[in-house]
Give the backbone structure.
Amino acid sequence: MRDSSIKHYQLFDALHHDSLLAMSFLNEICGRYPEAISFAPGRPLEDDFNHELLSQYLETYIDYLRRKLNYSEREIARVLFQYGKTSGIIQPLIARHLANDEGIIADPDDIVVTVGAQEAMLITLRVFCTSTRDVVLVPEPCYVGIVGAARLLDITIVPVKETHGTLEVKSVAEACESARKEGLNPVLLYLVPGYANPSGVCLSLEARLALLRYVSEHKLYILEDNPYGLFAREGSATVATLKSLDSEKRVIYVGSFSKTCFPGARIGYLYADQHVEGFAGGKRISDVFSSVKSMLTVNTPPIAQAVIGGMLLQSDCRLTTRNRRNIKRYSDNLLTLAKALHDNFSDASDLSREVNWNLPDGGFFTVVNVPFLANAAALERSAQRFGILWTPMQDFYLEKGGERSLRLSSSLLSGEEIQQGIKRFKEFVISEVALQQHQ
Ligand SMILES: Cc1ncc(COP(=O)(O)O)c(C=O)c1O
């Protein structure tokens, strides 16, 4: 019999990288232990997830088309059922949200609606990286979405270590200089300035201004990814977005409604106000983004846009107001988690001395350092024997790093689950330390 299987080496294998395979493993293990208390995924609260609301959101948007924009029934049907404009249909509502919630005054024509932030990142990388020498700088540890997108496009990623709970300009400058010495050309600096995934780091206003100054002087662009920016912890002030401070037009802003509305809609967007010369498709960088998008997904599904449009309209395009209850829950959960860790690891024992964690100013994620290898095998033991799931930090490093730390996401849990989960976590830590001593 002839072997008809395709050999792996015949296929594109940019995703054949440990950290990206680890994500499939994480999903798989979450599926195998549905009863476990899961600190693993960075998912938004589900309290408002009621399928009956979907038709209400849609009706709200249709009513807006009918009454506010004077669309005929025929036009409404066409908007929802037909192929649509590549740049999208809800940009004016997104612009209102940006003004209300992010202090960004945007021309709707500078916005392109995308299939999640993920597509927005892919488009930006494709547009800005034009030769094999062009590289993207990312903070390390780093969100896997940008790393995966770059690998899909064969774009080289240069990690810049987060230090002292921030991303220092000095580190960015050093990374740029050494890349240039190797003949590479840094073009983009990817940042999640508000409560980063996975580190929870929030860049101060000074750090943001310093990074803006650096990229202006050195002719780089910042790719600002801001899915958690509205989720400040109680008592912590929200910091201005880089885009709202961007007087030199150095920032490409990526938005996502995955955490502020719901991820099933798969709606994100790009906002960029740079102009381009000599492009046949238009004078705005958004025209270039649209031309790339037209060959990726043609247009973002109008039904999904209409649902998010309806949600925006129902809250007068104010997502901070819409998310008030959730923002409080995320904040309470971060504090409950920190207190549970403190209660379980604050005695004078060696174990407690070796377990430490951060308390981020907002967002979903807390990082815990532990005195053992927090890898896939440890996660399997944690799920099987203690019924808790978490994410190994090493998955967020390009090469080495994060081996003895793990990410806990508290966004989706109740206070009781967090407390119960951390009690189990302590048992797990004790057992791992014992295991290590026997090896
Ligand atoms: C840093 C970061 N960017 C973007 C996203 C959201 O991406 P999307 O809009 O594609 O769901 C996430 C979600 O986990 C994230 O952590």
Observations:
- DSSP finds 15 helices and 13 strands in the chain.
